[in-house]
Amino acid sequence: MSTVAAPERAPSGARPSRRPVGRWLSDHLVLLVGILVLLYIFVPIGYIFALSFNQPSGRSATAQFESFTWSNWTSLCEPEGLCDSLKLSFEVSLTATLLATVLGTLMAFALVRHSFRGRAASNLVIFLPMATPEVVMGSSLLAMFVSVGFDSVLGFVTIVIAHVLFCLSFVVVTVKARLVGMDARLEQAAMDLYANEWQTFRLVTLPLAMPGIVAAAMLSFSLSFDDFIVTNFTSGQSITFPLYIYGAKLKDFPPQLFAVGTLMFCISFVFVIGAELWRRRRGAAAGR
Amino acid sequence: MTSGLTTPLSGPAPVVDGETTKRRGWGWVLLVPGMLYLAVFFVFPTVQLFFTSLYDPSGSYEQGYAMTWHFANYVDAVKDTWNLFARSFAYAGIATVVCLALGYPLAYAIAFKAGAWKNFMLVLVIAPFFTSFLLRTLSWRTILSDQGPVTSLFQTVGVLPDDGRLLATPVAVIAGLIYNFMPFMTLPLYASLDKVDYRLVEAAGDLYSSPFTGFRKVTFPLSMPGVVSGTLLTFIPACGDYINAELLGTPKQYMVGNRIQSAFLTEHNYPLAASLSLILMAIVVVMVVVYVRRAGTEDLI
Protein backbone atom coordinates (compact mmCIF):
# COMPACT_ATOMS: atom_id res chain seq x y z
CA MET A 1 0.00 0.00 0.00
CA SER A 2 2.63 2.46 1.03
CA THR A 3 6.16 2.88 -0.18
CA VAL A 4 7.42 4.73 2.87
CA ALA A 5 9.18 2.35 5.22
CA ALA A 6 8.25 2.62 8.85
CA PRO A 7 11.32 3.27 10.98
CA GLU A 8 11.10 0.07 12.97
CA ARG A 9 10.64 -2.12 9.95
CA ALA A 10 12.99 -4.48 8.22
CA PRO A 11 14.93 -3.20 5.15
CA SER A 12 12.47 -1.78 2.67
CA GLY A 13 13.41 -4.10 -0.18
CA ALA A 14 11.61 -6.97 1.50
CA ARG A 15 8.56 -5.01 2.44
CA PRO A 16 6.20 -4.91 -0.52
CA SER A 17 6.12 -8.69 -0.73
CA ARG A 18 6.48 -9.32 3.00
CA ARG A 19 3.57 -7.28 4.11
CA PRO A 20 0.80 -9.10 2.21
CA VAL A 21 2.37 -12.41 3.15
CA GLY A 22 2.53 -11.34 6.77
CA ARG A 23 -1.03 -10.15 6.67
CA TRP A 24 -2.23 -13.34 4.97
CA LEU A 25 -0.45 -15.36 7.62
CA SER A 26 -1.82 -13.34 10.50
CA ASP A 27 -5.34 -13.48 9.04
CA HIS A 28 -5.27 -17.17 8.57
CA LEU A 29 -3.23 -17.94 11.64
CA VAL A 30 -5.92 -16.51 13.89
CA LEU A 31 -8.63 -18.31 11.98
CA LEU A 32 -6.63 -21.51 12.10
CA VAL A 33 -6.09 -21.25 15.85
CA GLY A 34 -9.79 -20.47 16.25
CA ILE A 35 -10.76 -23.56 14.28
CA LEU A 36 -8.36 -25.71 16.30
CA VAL A 37 -9.94 -24.44 19.51
CA LEU A 38 -13.37 -25.27 18.09
CA LEU A 39 -12.18 -28.78 17.26
CA TYR A 40 -10.96 -29.13 20.83
CA ILE A 41 -14.40 -28.04 22.04
CA PHE A 42 -15.91 -30.85 19.98
CA VAL A 43 -13.64 -33.68 21.14
CA PRO A 44 -15.84 -34.96 23.99
CA ILE A 45 -18.99 -34.34 22.00
CA GLY A 46 -17.67 -36.56 19.21
CA TYR A 47 -16.79 -39.11 21.81
CA ILE A 48 -20.31 -39.09 23.27
CA PHE A 49 -21.71 -39.40 19.76
CA ALA A 50 -19.52 -42.40 18.96
CA LEU A 51 -20.25 -44.17 22.23
CA SER A 52 -24.00 -43.79 21.70
CA PHE A 53 -23.64 -46.50 19.04
CA ASN A 54 -21.50 -48.73 21.18
CA GLN A 55 -22.63 -52.11 22.37
CA PRO A 56 -20.81 -52.73 25.66
CA SER A 57 -20.14 -56.34 26.54
CA GLY A 58 -21.33 -55.95 30.11
CA ARG A 59 -24.40 -54.11 31.31
CA SER A 60 -22.47 -50.95 32.02
CA ALA A 61 -21.06 -48.63 29.38
CA THR A 62 -17.32 -48.80 28.87
CA ALA A 63 -14.72 -46.44 27.59
CA GLN A 64 -13.67 -48.53 24.59
CA PHE A 65 -15.74 -48.88 21.48
CA GLU A 66 -16.69 -52.53 21.18
CA SER A 67 -19.31 -53.13 18.54
CA PHE A 68 -21.86 -51.12 16.63
CA THR A 69 -25.49 -51.13 17.65
CA TRP A 70 -28.66 -49.10 17.34
CA SER A 71 -30.09 -50.52 20.54
CA ASN A 72 -29.14 -47.59 22.75
CA TRP A 73 -31.22 -45.38 20.54
CA THR A 74 -34.22 -47.67 20.45
CA SER A 75 -34.35 -48.17 24.19
CA LEU A 76 -33.80 -44.64 25.46
CA CYS A 77 -36.21 -44.90 28.36
CA GLU A 78 -35.25 -48.41 29.39
CA PRO A 79 -32.85 -47.53 32.22
CA GLU A 80 -34.96 -47.00 35.31
CA GLY A 81 -35.63 -43.36 36.10
CA LEU A 82 -33.78 -41.92 33.10
CA CYS A 83 -36.78 -40.46 31.33
CA ASP A 84 -38.38 -39.37 34.59
CA SER A 85 -35.26 -37.37 35.36
CA LEU A 86 -35.36 -35.80 31.91
CA LYS A 87 -39.00 -34.88 32.40
CA LEU A 88 -38.26 -33.30 35.76
CA SER A 89 -35.33 -31.38 34.30
CA PHE A 90 -37.54 -30.00 31.55
CA GLU A 91 -40.24 -28.93 34.00
CA VAL A 92 -37.72 -27.31 36.30
CA SER A 93 -35.88 -25.49 33.53
CA LEU A 94 -39.00 -24.21 31.81
CA THR A 95 -40.48 -22.90 35.06
CA ALA A 96 -37.22 -21.37 36.22
CA THR A 97 -36.55 -19.80 32.82
CA LEU A 98 -40.00 -18.24 32.66
CA LEU A 99 -39.77 -16.78 36.16
CA ALA A 100 -36.19 -15.58 35.84
CA THR A 101 -36.80 -14.01 32.43
CA VAL A 102 -39.85 -12.07 33.59
CA LEU A 103 -38.30 -10.88 36.86
CA GLY A 104 -34.94 -10.12 35.29
CA THR A 105 -36.35 -8.25 32.27
CA LEU A 106 -38.41 -6.00 34.55
CA MET A 107 -35.30 -5.30 36.62
CA ALA A 108 -33.22 -4.54 33.54
CA PHE A 109 -35.82 -2.04 32.32
CA ALA A 110 -35.92 -0.36 35.71
CA LEU A 111 -32.14 -0.10 35.86
CA VAL A 112 -31.59 1.17 32.34
CA ARG A 113 -34.64 3.34 31.83
CA HIS A 114 -35.29 4.88 35.18
CA SER A 115 -33.29 6.79 37.70
CA PHE A 116 -33.99 6.45 41.38
CA ARG A 117 -32.13 6.33 44.62
CA GLY A 118 -30.29 3.13 45.37
CA ARG A 119 -29.51 2.17 41.77
CA ALA A 120 -25.89 1.48 42.61
CA ALA A 121 -26.86 -0.65 45.58
CA SER A 122 -29.34 -2.57 43.44
CA ASN A 123 -26.67 -3.20 40.84
CA LEU A 124 -24.42 -4.59 43.54
CA VAL A 125 -27.10 -6.93 44.91
CA ILE A 126 -27.73 -8.18 41.37
CA PHE A 127 -24.05 -8.70 40.74
CA LEU A 128 -23.32 -10.56 43.99
CA PRO A 129 -25.05 -13.83 43.08
CA MET A 130 -22.79 -14.03 40.02
CA ALA A 131 -19.74 -13.55 42.24
CA THR A 132 -20.92 -16.30 44.55
CA PRO A 133 -19.50 -19.73 43.82
CA GLU A 134 -22.31 -22.20 43.20
CA VAL A 135 -21.29 -24.38 46.09
CA VAL A 136 -21.79 -21.41 48.45
CA MET A 137 -25.16 -20.53 46.95
CA GLY A 138 -26.34 -24.10 47.17
CA SER A 139 -25.19 -24.54 50.72
CA SER A 140 -26.71 -21.30 51.96
CA LEU A 141 -30.05 -22.16 50.33
CA LEU A 142 -30.00 -25.62 51.85
CA ALA A 143 -29.22 -24.19 55.29
CA MET A 144 -32.15 -21.82 54.92
CA PHE A 145 -34.58 -24.45 53.67
CA VAL A 146 -33.61 -26.70 56.57
CA SER A 147 -33.97 -23.96 59.16
CA VAL A 148 -37.42 -22.86 58.03
CA GLY A 149 -38.62 -26.44 58.00
CA PHE A 150 -38.62 -26.93 54.25
CA ASP A 151 -36.51 -30.07 54.44
CA SER A 152 -39.59 -32.24 54.05
CA VAL A 153 -40.59 -30.54 50.79
CA LEU A 154 -37.15 -30.37 49.17
CA GLY A 155 -37.81 -31.11 45.53
CA PHE A 156 -39.36 -29.37 42.55
CA VAL A 157 -40.16 -26.12 44.36
CA THR A 158 -36.80 -25.72 46.07
CA ILE A 159 -34.90 -26.61 42.87
CA VAL A 160 -36.87 -24.00 40.94
CA ILE A 161 -36.25 -21.37 43.65
CA ALA A 162 -32.51 -22.05 43.45
CA HIS A 163 -32.40 -22.04 39.64
CA VAL A 164 -34.31 -18.77 39.33
CA LEU A 165 -31.80 -17.28 41.74
CA PHE A 166 -28.71 -18.06 39.70
CA CYS A 167 -30.40 -17.35 36.35
CA LEU A 168 -31.77 -13.99 37.45
CA SER A 169 -28.51 -12.05 37.43
CA PHE A 170 -27.58 -13.44 34.02
CA VAL A 171 -30.95 -12.34 32.63
CA VAL A 172 -30.56 -8.84 34.06
CA VAL A 173 -27.06 -8.47 32.62
CA THR A 174 -28.02 -9.82 29.18
CA VAL A 175 -31.17 -7.74 28.78
CA LYS A 176 -29.43 -4.67 30.19
CA ALA A 177 -26.69 -4.97 27.58
CA ARG A 178 -29.33 -5.02 24.86
CA LEU A 179 -31.26 -2.06 26.27
CA VAL A 180 -28.14 0.07 26.69
CA GLY A 181 -27.20 -0.50 23.06
CA MET A 182 -30.65 0.47 21.79
CA ASP A 183 -31.20 3.67 19.88
CA ALA A 184 -33.57 5.77 22.02
CA ARG A 185 -34.32 7.97 19.02
CA LEU A 186 -36.51 5.22 17.55
CA GLU A 187 -38.81 5.40 20.54
CA GLN A 188 -38.76 9.19 20.43
CA ALA A 189 -39.72 8.99 16.78
CA ALA A 190 -42.67 6.75 17.66
CA MET A 191 -43.79 9.20 20.32
CA ASP A 192 -43.38 12.06 17.88
CA LEU A 193 -45.68 10.16 15.54
CA TYR A 194 -48.35 10.17 18.24
CA ALA A 195 -47.93 6.69 19.61
CA ASN A 196 -48.78 6.64 23.30
CA GLU A 197 -46.46 5.11 25.89
CA TRP A 198 -48.05 1.70 25.74
CA GLN A 199 -48.07 1.58 21.93
CA THR A 200 -44.46 2.73 21.84
CA PHE A 201 -43.53 0.03 24.29
CA ARG A 202 -45.43 -2.72 22.52
CA LEU A 203 -44.57 -1.81 18.93
CA VAL A 204 -41.07 -0.37 19.26
CA THR A 205 -39.36 -1.00 22.59
CA LEU A 206 -40.33 -4.62 23.09
CA PRO A 207 -39.47 -5.82 19.56
CA LEU A 208 -36.13 -4.04 19.83
CA ALA A 209 -35.41 -5.59 23.22
CA MET A 210 -36.62 -9.04 22.13
CA PRO A 211 -33.29 -10.48 20.93
CA GLY A 212 -31.82 -9.70 24.34
CA ILE A 213 -34.76 -11.24 26.15
CA VAL A 214 -34.67 -14.36 23.97
CA ALA A 215 -30.92 -14.71 24.49
CA ALA A 216 -31.42 -14.35 28.23
CA ALA A 217 -34.13 -17.00 28.24
CA MET A 218 -31.98 -19.42 26.24
CA LEU A 219 -29.06 -18.83 28.55
CA SER A 220 -31.28 -19.40 31.59
CA PHE A 221 -32.65 -22.60 30.16
CA SER A 222 -29.24 -24.07 29.45
CA LEU A 223 -27.80 -22.98 32.79
CA SER A 224 -30.77 -24.46 34.59
CA PHE A 225 -31.00 -27.68 32.58
CA ASP A 226 -27.33 -28.44 33.07
CA ASP A 227 -26.93 -27.41 36.66
CA PHE A 228 -25.56 -29.96 39.03
CA ILE A 229 -23.96 -28.23 42.01
CA VAL A 230 -26.80 -26.06 43.27
CA THR A 231 -29.35 -28.74 42.39
CA ASN A 232 -27.42 -31.33 44.36
CA PHE A 233 -27.89 -29.23 47.49
CA THR A 234 -31.53 -28.32 47.02
CA SER A 235 -33.11 -31.38 45.40
CA GLY A 236 -33.84 -33.62 48.37
CA GLN A 237 -34.94 -36.94 46.88
CA SER A 238 -35.79 -35.60 43.43
CA ILE A 239 -33.50 -36.54 40.58
CA THR A 240 -32.89 -34.21 37.66
CA PHE A 241 -31.01 -35.35 34.59
CA PRO A 242 -27.56 -34.15 35.78
CA LEU A 243 -28.17 -35.81 39.15
CA TYR A 244 -29.13 -38.99 37.31
CA ILE A 245 -25.84 -39.01 35.40
CA TYR A 246 -23.95 -38.35 38.59
CA GLY A 247 -25.71 -41.24 40.29
CA ALA A 248 -25.13 -43.49 37.28
CA LYS A 249 -21.41 -42.89 37.33
CA LEU A 250 -21.28 -44.48 40.77
CA LYS A 251 -23.12 -47.67 39.76
CA ASP A 252 -23.38 -49.09 36.28
CA PHE A 253 -23.49 -46.49 33.60
CA PRO A 254 -26.30 -47.17 31.11
CA PRO A 255 -25.04 -46.64 27.53
CA GLN A 256 -28.39 -44.99 26.71
CA LEU A 257 -27.04 -41.90 28.50
CA PHE A 258 -24.73 -41.30 25.55
CA ALA A 259 -27.66 -41.56 23.17
CA VAL A 260 -29.67 -39.10 25.25
CA GLY A 261 -26.67 -36.76 25.34
CA THR A 262 -26.31 -36.94 21.56
CA LEU A 263 -30.04 -36.48 21.05
CA MET A 264 -30.04 -33.39 23.27
CA PHE A 265 -27.13 -32.03 21.32
CA CYS A 266 -28.82 -32.59 17.96
CA ILE A 267 -32.16 -31.14 19.05
CA SER A 268 -30.56 -27.98 20.45
CA PHE A 269 -28.35 -27.64 17.42
CA VAL A 270 -31.26 -27.88 14.98
CA PHE A 271 -33.27 -25.53 17.17
CA VAL A 272 -30.55 -22.87 17.29
CA ILE A 273 -29.73 -23.11 13.59
CA GLY A 274 -33.44 -22.99 12.78
CA ALA A 275 -33.87 -19.88 14.92
CA GLU A 276 -30.92 -18.27 13.16
CA LEU A 277 -32.28 -19.05 9.68
CA TRP A 278 -35.70 -17.74 10.68
CA ARG A 279 -34.11 -14.56 12.00
CA ARG A 280 -32.20 -14.12 8.75
CA ARG A 281 -35.26 -14.61 6.59
CA ARG A 282 -37.23 -12.21 8.72
CA GLY A 283 -34.35 -9.74 8.59
CA ALA A 284 -34.21 -10.04 4.80
CA ALA A 285 -37.97 -9.57 4.54
CA ALA A 286 -37.87 -6.53 6.80
CA GLY A 287 -35.01 -5.07 4.82
CA ARG A 288 -37.03 -5.04 1.64
CA MET B 1 -46.68 10.35 31.51
CA THR B 2 -49.84 9.45 29.65
CA SER B 3 -49.69 12.31 27.18
CA GLY B 4 -48.86 11.05 23.74
CA LEU B 5 -48.41 14.47 22.24
CA THR B 6 -44.70 14.96 22.30
CA THR B 7 -44.24 17.36 19.44
CA PRO B 8 -40.82 18.41 18.22
CA LEU B 9 -41.60 21.88 19.49
CA SER B 10 -42.25 20.88 23.07
CA GLY B 11 -38.92 22.00 24.41
CA PRO B 12 -35.26 21.32 23.90
CA ALA B 13 -34.48 18.15 22.00
CA PRO B 14 -34.16 15.15 24.30
CA VAL B 15 -30.91 13.31 24.69
CA VAL B 16 -29.53 12.15 21.37
CA ASP B 17 -26.23 10.28 20.86
CA GLY B 18 -27.96 6.96 21.44
CA GLU B 19 -28.07 7.79 25.13
CA THR B 20 -31.23 6.47 26.71
CA THR B 21 -33.59 8.86 28.34
CA LYS B 22 -33.79 8.29 32.07
CA ARG B 23 -37.13 8.94 33.64
CA ARG B 24 -37.88 9.55 37.27
CA GLY B 25 -41.07 8.35 38.85
CA TRP B 26 -42.57 4.93 39.29
CA GLY B 27 -39.86 3.09 37.38
CA TRP B 28 -38.35 1.55 40.49
CA VAL B 29 -41.55 -0.46 40.93
CA LEU B 30 -40.32 -2.78 38.16
CA LEU B 31 -37.37 -3.59 40.34
CA VAL B 32 -39.41 -4.62 43.38
CA PRO B 33 -40.33 -8.24 42.56
CA GLY B 34 -36.79 -9.16 41.56
CA MET B 35 -35.20 -7.38 44.50
CA LEU B 36 -37.62 -9.05 46.90
CA TYR B 37 -36.65 -12.37 45.39
CA LEU B 38 -32.97 -11.64 45.87
CA ALA B 39 -33.58 -10.42 49.42
CA VAL B 40 -35.47 -13.55 50.44
CA PHE B 41 -33.42 -16.16 48.61
CA PHE B 42 -29.99 -14.61 48.46
CA VAL B 43 -29.39 -11.95 51.10
CA PHE B 44 -31.31 -13.71 53.83
CA PRO B 45 -29.65 -17.13 53.33
CA THR B 46 -26.24 -15.48 53.20
CA VAL B 47 -26.83 -13.69 56.48
CA GLN B 48 -28.12 -16.91 57.92
CA LEU B 49 -25.08 -18.73 56.65
CA PHE B 50 -23.02 -16.19 58.56
CA PHE B 51 -24.87 -17.05 61.78
CA THR B 52 -24.52 -20.77 61.07
CA SER B 53 -20.78 -20.28 60.78
CA LEU B 54 -20.72 -19.02 64.37
CA TYR B 55 -22.52 -21.98 65.93
CA ASP B 56 -20.79 -23.99 68.57
CA PRO B 57 -18.96 -26.76 66.71
CA SER B 58 -19.62 -29.28 69.49
CA GLY B 59 -23.26 -29.52 68.39
CA SER B 60 -24.42 -31.94 65.73
CA TYR B 61 -26.96 -32.17 62.94
CA GLU B 62 -29.18 -34.44 65.02
CA GLN B 63 -29.01 -32.56 68.31
CA GLY B 64 -28.91 -29.07 66.94
CA TYR B 65 -26.37 -26.35 67.44
CA ALA B 66 -26.01 -23.70 70.09
CA MET B 67 -25.28 -20.16 69.01
CA THR B 68 -22.12 -19.15 70.82
CA TRP B 69 -20.65 -16.57 68.43
CA HIS B 70 -17.81 -19.02 68.00
CA PHE B 71 -15.52 -16.98 65.75
CA ALA B 72 -12.81 -19.60 66.28
CA ASN B 73 -14.65 -21.66 63.64
CA TYR B 74 -13.01 -19.47 61.05
CA VAL B 75 -9.55 -19.98 62.52
CA ASP B 76 -10.07 -23.74 62.60
CA ALA B 77 -11.42 -23.77 59.07
CA VAL B 78 -8.45 -21.86 57.71
CA LYS B 79 -5.97 -23.97 59.65
CA ASP B 80 -7.52 -27.15 58.29
CA THR B 81 -8.00 -26.17 54.73
CA TRP B 82 -5.67 -23.36 53.71
CA ASN B 83 -4.01 -25.72 51.27
CA LEU B 84 -7.36 -26.42 49.64
CA PHE B 85 -7.92 -22.71 49.22
CA ALA B 86 -4.46 -22.23 47.76
CA ARG B 87 -5.02 -25.12 45.37
CA SER B 88 -8.44 -23.88 44.30
CA PHE B 89 -7.19 -20.42 43.46
CA ALA B 90 -4.09 -21.77 41.73
CA TYR B 91 -6.11 -24.19 39.57
CA ALA B 92 -8.75 -21.58 38.81
CA GLY B 93 -6.08 -18.99 38.01
CA ILE B 94 -4.20 -21.26 35.61
CA ALA B 95 -7.44 -22.36 33.98
CA THR B 96 -8.51 -18.75 33.51
CA VAL B 97 -5.22 -17.75 31.89
CA VAL B 98 -5.30 -20.71 29.50
CA CYS B 99 -8.97 -20.04 28.70
CA LEU B 100 -8.06 -16.48 27.83
CA ALA B 101 -5.16 -17.64 25.66
CA LEU B 102 -7.42 -20.07 23.78
CA GLY B 103 -10.61 -18.06 23.84
CA TYR B 104 -9.12 -14.81 22.61
CA PRO B 105 -7.96 -16.06 19.20
CA LEU B 106 -11.26 -17.89 18.80
CA ALA B 107 -13.32 -14.82 19.67
CA TYR B 108 -11.08 -12.69 17.45
CA ALA B 109 -11.46 -15.08 14.54
CA ILE B 110 -15.24 -15.09 14.94
CA ALA B 111 -15.49 -11.31 15.24
CA PHE B 112 -13.14 -10.33 12.41
CA LYS B 113 -12.34 -13.31 10.19
CA ALA B 114 -15.41 -15.49 10.04
CA GLY B 115 -17.41 -13.36 7.63
CA ALA B 116 -20.66 -15.06 6.76
CA TRP B 117 -19.80 -17.93 9.10
CA LYS B 118 -19.89 -15.71 12.17
CA ASN B 119 -23.17 -16.87 13.63
CA PHE B 120 -22.48 -20.48 12.78
CA MET B 121 -19.15 -20.37 14.61
CA LEU B 122 -20.85 -18.77 17.59
CA VAL B 123 -23.30 -21.66 17.70
CA LEU B 124 -20.35 -24.04 17.68
CA VAL B 125 -18.88 -22.21 20.68
CA ILE B 126 -22.00 -22.69 22.75
CA ALA B 127 -22.52 -26.22 21.40
CA PRO B 128 -21.01 -27.85 24.50
CA PHE B 129 -23.94 -26.42 26.45
CA PHE B 130 -26.22 -28.55 24.34
CA THR B 131 -25.17 -31.74 26.03
CA SER B 132 -24.66 -32.34 29.68
CA PHE B 133 -21.69 -30.88 31.53
CA LEU B 134 -21.32 -34.12 33.50
CA LEU B 135 -21.38 -36.28 30.37
CA ARG B 136 -18.64 -34.16 28.82
CA THR B 137 -16.51 -34.34 31.94
CA LEU B 138 -17.00 -38.09 32.12
CA SER B 139 -15.92 -38.30 28.47
CA TRP B 140 -12.74 -36.44 29.31
CA ARG B 141 -12.20 -38.96 32.06
CA THR B 142 -12.07 -41.77 29.52
CA ILE B 143 -10.19 -39.72 26.92
CA LEU B 144 -7.48 -38.85 29.43
CA SER B 145 -7.44 -42.29 31.04
CA ASP B 146 -4.32 -44.42 31.14
CA GLN B 147 -5.35 -46.44 28.06
CA GLY B 148 -6.81 -43.39 26.37
CA PRO B 149 -5.51 -41.83 23.16
CA VAL B 150 -4.06 -38.67 24.71
CA THR B 151 -1.95 -40.45 27.28
CA SER B 152 -0.47 -42.85 24.74
CA LEU B 153 0.17 -40.02 22.28
CA PHE B 154 1.99 -38.02 24.95
CA GLN B 155 4.00 -41.08 25.90
CA THR B 156 5.00 -41.71 22.31
CA VAL B 157 6.02 -38.11 21.78
CA GLY B 158 7.90 -38.18 25.04
CA VAL B 159 6.02 -35.45 26.88
CA LEU B 160 5.04 -38.03 29.44
CA PRO B 161 7.22 -40.85 30.78
CA ASP B 162 6.06 -44.35 29.83
CA ASP B 163 4.43 -44.91 33.18
CA GLY B 164 3.19 -41.35 33.36
CA ARG B 165 -0.49 -40.63 33.55
CA LEU B 166 -2.82 -37.73 32.96
CA LEU B 167 -5.96 -38.78 34.73
CA ALA B 168 -5.85 -38.21 38.48
CA THR B 169 -3.27 -35.46 38.16
CA PRO B 170 -3.60 -31.69 38.52
CA VAL B 171 -3.20 -31.46 34.74
CA ALA B 172 -6.42 -33.38 34.18
CA VAL B 173 -8.35 -31.31 36.71
CA ILE B 174 -7.15 -28.04 35.23
CA ALA B 175 -7.84 -29.30 31.71
CA GLY B 176 -11.37 -30.11 32.79
CA LEU B 177 -11.83 -26.63 34.24
CA ILE B 178 -10.48 -25.06 31.06
CA TYR B 179 -12.79 -27.09 28.88
CA ASN B 180 -15.91 -26.53 30.92
CA PHE B 181 -15.57 -22.78 31.33
CA MET B 182 -14.31 -21.99 27.86
CA PRO B 183 -17.66 -20.67 26.50
CA PHE B 184 -17.94 -18.33 29.49
CA MET B 185 -14.65 -16.78 28.41
CA THR B 186 -15.23 -16.77 24.66
CA LEU B 187 -18.71 -15.23 24.57
CA PRO B 188 -17.97 -11.98 26.46
CA LEU B 189 -14.70 -11.64 24.53
CA TYR B 190 -16.61 -11.99 21.30
CA ALA B 191 -19.25 -9.49 22.43
CA SER B 192 -16.53 -6.91 23.10
CA LEU B 193 -14.46 -7.59 20.00
CA ASP B 194 -17.53 -7.48 17.80
CA LYS B 195 -18.18 -3.90 18.93
CA VAL B 196 -14.65 -2.79 18.04
CA ASP B 197 -14.74 -0.45 15.07
CA TYR B 198 -12.39 -2.18 12.66
CA ARG B 199 -11.63 1.15 10.98
CA LEU B 200 -9.66 2.11 14.08
CA VAL B 201 -7.45 -0.92 13.63
CA GLU B 202 -7.02 -0.07 9.94
CA ALA B 203 -6.19 3.50 10.90
CA ALA B 204 -3.43 2.20 13.15
CA GLY B 205 -2.10 0.21 10.19
CA ASP B 206 -2.27 3.25 7.93
CA LEU B 207 -0.23 5.14 10.50
CA TYR B 208 2.51 2.53 10.13
CA SER B 209 1.95 0.53 13.25
CA SER B 210 2.78 -3.11 12.74
CA PRO B 211 -0.19 -5.48 13.07
CA PHE B 212 1.11 -6.45 16.47
CA THR B 213 1.39 -2.87 17.71
CA GLY B 214 -2.02 -2.14 16.29
CA PHE B 215 -3.39 -5.06 18.22
CA ARG B 216 -1.58 -4.12 21.42
CA LYS B 217 -2.51 -0.45 21.34
CA VAL B 218 -5.93 -0.48 19.71
CA THR B 219 -7.76 -3.80 19.55
CA PHE B 220 -6.78 -5.22 22.92
CA PRO B 221 -7.55 -2.10 24.99
CA LEU B 222 -10.91 -1.81 23.24
CA SER B 223 -11.70 -5.41 24.11
CA MET B 224 -10.87 -4.91 27.78
CA PRO B 225 -14.49 -5.07 29.02
CA GLY B 226 -14.77 -8.50 27.44
CA VAL B 227 -11.48 -9.62 28.95
CA VAL B 228 -12.64 -8.53 32.39
CA SER B 229 -16.07 -10.12 32.27
CA GLY B 230 -14.71 -13.26 30.59
CA THR B 231 -12.03 -13.80 33.20
CA LEU B 232 -14.53 -13.19 36.00
CA LEU B 233 -17.11 -15.55 34.53
CA THR B 234 -14.39 -18.20 34.25
CA PHE B 235 -12.52 -17.64 37.47
CA ILE B 236 -15.48 -17.38 39.85
CA PRO B 237 -17.18 -20.65 38.98
CA ALA B 238 -13.82 -22.38 38.57
CA CYS B 239 -12.71 -21.70 42.13
CA GLY B 240 -15.93 -23.05 43.58
CA ASP B 241 -16.11 -26.05 41.28
CA TYR B 242 -15.70 -29.53 42.68
CA ILE B 243 -16.94 -31.74 39.88
CA ASN B 244 -13.76 -31.59 37.81
CA ALA B 245 -11.64 -32.35 40.85
CA GLU B 246 -13.91 -35.22 41.77
CA LEU B 247 -14.24 -36.81 38.34
CA LEU B 248 -10.80 -36.13 36.91
CA GLY B 249 -8.69 -36.00 40.05
CA THR B 250 -8.22 -37.82 43.31
CA PRO B 251 -8.58 -36.53 46.88
CA LYS B 252 -5.04 -35.19 46.38
CA GLN B 253 -6.43 -32.72 43.84
CA TYR B 254 -9.53 -31.82 45.80
CA MET B 255 -10.49 -28.19 45.87
CA VAL B 256 -12.28 -26.23 48.53
CA GLY B 257 -15.63 -26.94 46.86
CA ASN B 258 -15.18 -30.66 47.54
CA ARG B 259 -14.64 -29.94 51.20
CA ILE B 260 -17.67 -27.65 51.48
CA GLN B 261 -19.80 -30.18 49.69
CA SER B 262 -18.80 -33.06 51.93
CA ALA B 263 -18.97 -30.97 55.12
CA PHE B 264 -22.53 -30.04 54.21
CA LEU B 265 -23.97 -33.12 52.59
CA THR B 266 -22.12 -36.03 54.14
CA GLU B 267 -20.67 -34.90 57.47
CA HIS B 268 -23.47 -32.45 58.25
CA ASN B 269 -20.86 -30.26 59.91
CA TYR B 270 -22.75 -27.06 59.24
CA PRO B 271 -20.55 -24.58 61.15
CA LEU B 272 -17.45 -25.72 59.28
CA ALA B 273 -19.20 -25.75 55.91
CA ALA B 274 -20.68 -22.32 56.52
CA SER B 275 -17.40 -20.73 57.54
CA LEU B 276 -15.61 -22.28 54.56
CA SER B 277 -18.34 -21.00 52.24
CA LEU B 278 -18.15 -17.49 53.61
CA ILE B 279 -14.37 -17.39 53.46
CA LEU B 280 -14.51 -18.50 49.84
CA MET B 281 -17.18 -15.96 49.00
CA ALA B 282 -15.32 -13.15 50.78
CA ILE B 283 -12.03 -13.92 49.01
CA VAL B 284 -13.77 -14.09 45.64
CA VAL B 285 -15.62 -10.81 46.17
CA VAL B 286 -12.45 -9.02 47.33
CA MET B 287 -10.48 -10.37 44.36
CA VAL B 288 -13.23 -9.33 41.97
CA VAL B 289 -13.45 -5.81 43.37
CA VAL B 290 -9.67 -5.29 43.29
CA TYR B 291 -9.46 -6.73 39.80
CA VAL B 292 -12.31 -4.66 38.41
CA ARG B 293 -10.86 -1.48 39.94
CA ARG B 294 -7.47 -2.23 38.46
CA ALA B 295 -8.84 -3.00 35.04
CA GLY B 296 -10.68 0.32 35.16
CA THR B 297 -14.00 -0.99 33.93
CA GLU B 298 -16.09 -0.26 36.97
CA ASP B 299 -19.19 0.52 34.99
CA LEU B 300 -19.30 -3.18 34.24
CA ILE B 301 -21.08 -4.04 37.46
Verbal overview:
The complex is a heterodimer of chains A (288) and B (301). Chain A has helices spanning 15-51, 71-74, 82-113, 119-131, 134-147, 156-180, 184-192, 197-225, 229-234, 241-250, 256-287. Chain A folds into two domains: 13-71, no CATH class; 81-253, Orthogonal Bundle (MetI-like fold). By secondary structure, chain A is an all-alpha fold. Chain A is built from eleven helices and no strands. Helices cover 66% and strands 0% of the residues of chain B. In chain B, helix 2 packs across helix 12 (270-295). Chain B has helices at residues 32-52, 72-113, 118-126, 133-143, 149-157, 170-195, 198-206, 211-222, 224-240, 243-248, 256-265, 270-295. Chain B has one domain (45-56, 64-192, 220-300): Orthogonal Bundle (MetI-like fold). Chain B has twelve helices and no strands. With 301 residues, chain B is mainly alpha-helical. The chains are: A mainly alpha (288), B mainly alpha (301). Chains A and B meet through helix 1, helix 3, helix 4, helix 5 and helix 6 of A and helix 1, helix 2, helix 3, helix 4 and helix 6 of B.
